[in-house]
Amino acid sequence: MRSEWIKYAATGAIILLALVFPLLGVKSYYLHVAILGLLHAILALGLNLIAGYTGQLSLAQAAFFGIGSYVSALLMLNVKMSFWLAAPIGACAAALVGILFGLPTLRLKGPYFVISTLGFGEIIRLVFLNWESVTRGPNGLTGIPAPDDVALGFVTLTFDTKTGAYYLVLVTLLAVLALYYNLVYSRIGRALRAIHSDQIAAEVMGINLTFYKVFAFALSAFLSGLAGALYAGYIRFISPDTFTIGEAVNILIMMVLGGMGTIAGPIIGAVSITYLLETMRVFADYRLIIYGLLMFFIILYMPQGLVGVLAMAKDFLAARFPLPISRGTDEPPGQKGAAPVKGEI
Amino acid sequence: MLLECAGLTMRFGGLTAVDAVDLKLEKGQIMGLIGPNGSGKTTFFNMVSGIYKPTAGEVRLSGRNIAGRRPDYVASCGIARTFQNIRLFSGMTVWENVMIGRHCRMRQSILDDILGTARKQAEEKAAQEYLTGLLTLFKMQHMLHEQAKNLPYGKQRELEIIRAMASEPELLLLDEPAAGMNPQETAELIEFIRKLRDMGVTILVVEHDMKLVMNTCDRIAVLNNGRKIAEGSPREIQTNEAVIKAYLGKKVKEGA
Ligand SMILES: Nc1ncnc2c1ncn2[C@@H]1O[C@H](COP(=O)(O)OP(=O)(O)OP(=O)(O)O)[C@@H](O)[C@H]1O
Ligand SMILES: [Mg+2]
């Protein structure tokens, strides 16, 4: 594609900016907002797997976020486990719960799955709230330790500062993205999109519906749980108030606004919505009204989300500024030649 | 015997849509399955491909009973099909459609896919080579990046057949491939099916268009009210009393 170079240039520039962001002398508060934005990017990418690609909307993502947080925090507090072990265990615990919950419910057709995730999310929140002997109920868990220092021979990385936490979350997000990209442009990604498009046809092509749906759901729970563990290690205090249906709706709006079924979309949506929620009182107070209007507007005028708008801008720019050496318009068939969704960047 | 159906029966409540049908199909054969509307042809396909669980009876593929197994299992055993109402992945490209069609022939593991291992690359490359050949053979290689829903109607029907062929099936089930086609498109489809025959594919085709059936099929089976009322060569079927009665007794929408 002629316009691809803009995509690569923009991606490179954004990654570079993200890498030097803490070094630009930004106020500590904005670093905090950036950390929350990146964490939400992981959450929105997780939801995107099951909802954007597979077409099964889930409102349980805040619950998996909470499971990852609580499990890792409890392991660190009660058995003095290191964050580096507790975090993957927390993420795996969320994935396991996702499998157990998904196995029966993902077989449901129509709107029943999303309804069951709504109930599930509320049940998990009530468990955090009422299982006081373990979760300390509404008071939440305090005094969660920061991730241990990592000695790399000549330098020691510390994570009890905002800068340290920022880089930890950023590097995790980049690693997730590399694997996410592989997955989306592979047999698995094609199978998930086929299920989204037509379940019966997908099944007749040899795609095991239950397996792939549960797999996507478990992976989305894993990513949410991973974000939860990172959150606990950064914020050092967790309570049931964070893991509500309201948070699940936040994650949903981030994915939809950015562009579902794309890789860049959930990240763009997560960073922008987090920024608005954290910095604008009005936005936070009238959140639900604004979400309602946003949904209305997006569905009517920009079903591809912000990514769709960016893709149009990209094509516009590419038409104005073609590269002198064009790579030709037709790529050989292959995973990259077959761009999954129109407007993906 | 590649396909052997014995006593295959499907009941929906009080209605017996397919009633104890026996059918045998040899490797390399093209068999037509015809019958008036509502005679149970699609239901028969749905049982063979695993979408419906038969009420009774057996479906044997090279001797192995697959009746009542899930569609994805049946697909991996080597049965591919198309649908009476086109079911392409409409928002996806031609290339993605055929790649998904090859899903059950690709052997990489989930980890291979996520980590992007050499094994994944090799599997993707092998699929690419096979599918490029297939698409070239059926003259669709210049449309790879076209979205399926943007193809002309006749091409959509052909793409559905190519997608089914992507898995190199032992048996191909075509449900009314010529439905909705104009005479020119039908003529092209006949050429298309002849090419498949030359490739040695075994085909069971449901079709109302008698020109297509008579020009492509080695044998024909006739269903009426869920029962098989005749089977034989195209010539035998054309003169069969019971068949003529079944068709003339009802109003038929086209062909015949
Ligand atoms: N899922 C179902 N539930 C109830 N009845 C069904 C179902 N599927 C098919 N039938 C009935 O079974 C009978 C056979 O239908 P089928 O679709 O197999 O016919 P057909 O031979 O394919 O007809 P056509 O030529 O119109 O495609 C019809 O009476 C139909 O109404
Ligand atoms: Mg039919």
Characterize the structure shown.
The complex is a heterodimer of chains A (345) and B (256). Chain A is built from 15 helices and 2 strands. Chain A is mainly alpha-helical and 345 residues long. Chain A has one domain (27-320): ABC transporter involved in vitamin B12 uptake, BtuC (Orthogonal Bundle), CATH 1.10.3470. A two-stranded antiparallel sheet of chain A has the order 1-2. In chain A, α2 runs antiparallel to α10 (209-235), α7 (162-184) runs antiparallel to α10 and α11 crosses α12 (264-279). Chain A is globular, with a radius of gyration of 20 Å. Mean pLDDT of chain A is 88; it is low at 325-345. Chain B has a 6-stranded mixed sheet, with helices on both faces. A 4-stranded antiparallel sheet of chain B has the order 2-1-4-5, with helices on one face. With 256 residues, chain B is α/β, with parallel strands linked by helices. In chain B, a hairpin with a 2-residue loop joins β4 and β5. Chain B has helices at residues 41-48, 71-77, 94-101, 110-115, 118-137, 153-165, 183-198, 210-216, 234-238, 241-249, and strands spanning 3-12, 15-25, 30-34, 56-61, 64-65, 79-81, 171-175, 202-206, 219-224, 227-232. Chain B is globular, with a radius of gyration of 19 Å. Chain B starts with a strand and ends in a 7-residue tail after the last helix. The chains are: A mainly alpha (345), B alpha/beta (256). Residues 12, 15, 17, 35, 37-43, 84 of chain B line the site of adenosine-5'-triphosphate (ATP).
